[in-house]
Amino acid sequence: MLPPLNLHLYRTPPATQRSEQWVNVFGKRLPSQHVQQLGHWVMDATLDQLLESLAQDPRLFIEPDGSFVWTGSQTSLGDHTELTENWQLDGMLYDNPQGLVRVELMGCCPQVQWQKLIDQLQPDGHLIAHLLEPGCFVLASDLLVLWNS
Asked: How many domains does the chain have?
């Protein structure tokens, strides 16, 4: 089963520190992060770069205003049967004249699509996710454990 995502991604601010609190997300324990101020730290990718690179995927539909829908299906082996699971990730890209400042995501996707999106947004991986439920921050890289069974 693919993990449900409902989050906003930002470039990790310099003053971010690991909190003493842990959070349970989709049955996994993740360390939360203390963020003093998000500010407008821009990501390495620009909206135009993302529009160009992500539009190459035939199942990703992206609009010039930054809204997108990415769909697909994933086949895996279950108990002696082949299982096909459809997925969809809805998003919105927000930018300012300096670059991309926030990405809103909702839905689910396989790990390979998650990693592709993260690599496109911030090749050095310095992204922080604001999880809308339970309302905390975690490093985007820490979310990779959600796909491990």
From this structure: 1
